[in-house]
């Protein structure tokens, strides 16, 4: 089975990048799979996650971002030229490779991928957002984008979503929808988190979706009564300066750059918090749970509720209820035995997202769409 993934670039420490690399690595280890990743904008950027030797990474050198050096009609013209180049080069490479299936992401040029494929092989489109956030932009250019995306989704053999609730939303508009959660790397350290360490961890991009500033606000409300505890935040993003400014005035906050040793960071913690506005899945939750960390998260659409069993392996807090969120954190801080018991349950939950549980669903999907 020849599988080609098409993606913008594997250049940042991101959840989608991590998942694409992990899936490609897994499939390349199967005897009858040949896996390639074609990128549009990799350039000289190193891949932050380790790719197996069996995965071929090829950059088409499109440089989509260069259109933003221009303004107005010149930007539109340059963007159109880059899109035509992308379709032409991708079509040529697909003709050379002759894949059985092509996989792309809904946020990364799916309409161009569908055009390049031209109906010759099945296209599977992965949604790494939620439906509510995919078609909500009202500006003229965004309406054009939505129209093109809609055409691509209708032409695709299958749309894959990450949670059952989001799949239900997609099925209101498309028939070819399946739900396959992300596969999750399991704790490789041989250690586990410790309720006695008095360290809380948050792993998130510093942007509007992840609401790290809200986490800091909640943390500030409990630091006076829990002065021995620390909040360790791993991430970066376009709100980084704002987060750094806030953190400087709050005791017990330690900021870190993203790391490829995140499991060591989980194991040096007591529990994980997540304050996202929405989460298509929330990869950090089952990762941390595999290390024996319970999770406190807002019950946002739709990831947390598909992963956490409230009161068993973590806490789901009503969206926006900052006081309740702080109360659940206090409970785990002051009841280490409860924290450990929930951590034990979290390890069991994380196993349900292991590669051995998730990837057979992908190989079965590929068999279905190719008829092989």
What does this structure look like?
The chain has 372 residues and is of the alpha/beta class. It folds into two domains: 2-183 and 354-370, Glycogen Phosphorylase B (Rossmann fold, 3-Layer(aba) Sandwich), CATH 3.40.50.2000; 195-351, Rossmann fold, CATH 3.40.50. The protein has helices at residues 15-28, 72-97, 110-117, 131-134, 140-155, 164-171, 212-222, 240-248, 262-267, 284-290, 303-307, 322-334, 336-351, 355-370; strands at residues 2-7, 34-39, 55-59, 101-105, 123-126, 158-161, 177-179, 199-203, 230-234, 253-256, 271-274, 295-298, 314-317. It has a seven-stranded parallel β-sheet, with helices on both faces. Helix 7 (212-222) packs across helix 12 (322-334) and helix 10 crosses helix 13 (336-351). It is globular and about 65 Å long.
């Amino acid at each position: 089975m020849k599988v080609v993934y098409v993606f913008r670039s594997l250049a940042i420490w991101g959840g989608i990048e991590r998942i694409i690399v992990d899936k490609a690595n897994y499939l390349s280890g199967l005897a009858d799979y040949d896996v390639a990743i074609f990128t549009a904008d990799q350039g000289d950027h190193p891949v932050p996650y380790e790719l197996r030797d069996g995965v071929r990474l090829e950059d088409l050198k499109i440089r989509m971002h260069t259109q933003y050096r221009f303004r107005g009609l010149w930007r539109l013209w340059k963007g159109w030229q880059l899109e035509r180049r992308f379709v032409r080069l991708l079509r040529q490479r697909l003709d050379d490779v002759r894949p059985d299936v092509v996989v792309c992401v809904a946020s990364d040029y799916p309409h161009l991928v569908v055009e390049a494929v031209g109906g010759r092989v099945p296209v599977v489109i992965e949604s790494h957002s939620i439906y509510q956030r995919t078609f909500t932009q009202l500006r003229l250019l965004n309406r054009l984008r939505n129209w093109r995306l809609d055409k691509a989704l209708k032409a695709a053999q299958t749309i894959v979503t990450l949670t059952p609730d989001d799949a239900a939303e997609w099925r209101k508009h498309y028939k070819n929808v399946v739900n396959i959660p992300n596969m999750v790397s399991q704790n490789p350290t041989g250690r586990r988190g410790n309720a006695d360490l008095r360290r809380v961890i948050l792993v998130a991009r510093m942007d509007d979706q992840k609401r790290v500033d809200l986490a800091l606000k909640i943390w500030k409300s409990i630091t006076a009564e829990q002065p021995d505890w620390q909040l360790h935040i791993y991430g970066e993003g376009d709100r980084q300066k704002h987060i750094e400014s806030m953190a400087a005035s709050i005791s017990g906050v330690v900021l870190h750059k993203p790391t490829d040793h995140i499991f060591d960071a989980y194991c040096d913690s007591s529990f994980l918090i997540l304050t996202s506005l929405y989460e298509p899945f929330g990869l950090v939750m089952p990762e941390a749970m595999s290390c024996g960390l319970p999770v406190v998260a807002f019950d946002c659409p739709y990831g947390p509720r598909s992963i956490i069993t409230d009161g068993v392996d973590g806490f789901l807090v009503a969206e926006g209820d900052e006081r309740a969120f702080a109360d659940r954190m206090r409970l785990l801080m002051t009841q280490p035995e409860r924290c450990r018991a929930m951590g034990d349950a979290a390890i069991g939950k994380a196993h349900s997202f292991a590669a051995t549980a998730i990837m057979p669903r992908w190989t079965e999907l590929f068999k279905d769409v190719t008829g092989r």
